[in-house]
Design a protein that fits this description.
Elements (H helix, E strand, L loop, with lengths): L1 E8 L5 H15 L5 E8 L6 E8 L2 H8 L2 H10 L8 E5 L8
Antiparallel strand pairs: 1-3, 1-4, 2-3
Length: about 100
């Protein structure tokens, strides 16, 4: 299992437009065979900031996602809607409780 987080900051005045594009990405990613979980969150304490928690079957599934047409389309749309660079982290799950 590969777990990735992504933090994205909206450009001023582009929060709603960015949210719409991010929601589209969730819908498209849900169709990917190797996508286990793909959750979009709004960061409550930082207006205009969104965070993804992503789980993929393995690195190959993540690579398929990163190279998919819908992800490339997302990247081209989001450039004008974001402020600064996104922040990305790969995580290793050590322990958890069921949801």
């Amino acid at each position: 299992m590969l777990i990735v987080t992504a933090k994205i900051h909206a450009a001023e005045g582009k929060e709603q437009e960015l949210e719409t594009v991010l929601r589209e990405l969730v819908k498209d990613t849900a169709k990917e065979e190797g996508s286990v979980e793909y959750r979009l969150h709004r960061v409550v304490d930082t207006p205009g900031t969104f965070r993804f928690i992503e789980k993929f079957k393995d690195q190959d599934a993540f690579d398929v996602h990163s190279n998919s047409e819908h992800f490339k389309k997302f990247v081209s749309k989001v450039e004008d809607l974001t402020a600064g660079e996104g922040e990305f982290e790969r995580l290793e799950l050590l322990d958890s409780i069921p949801e």
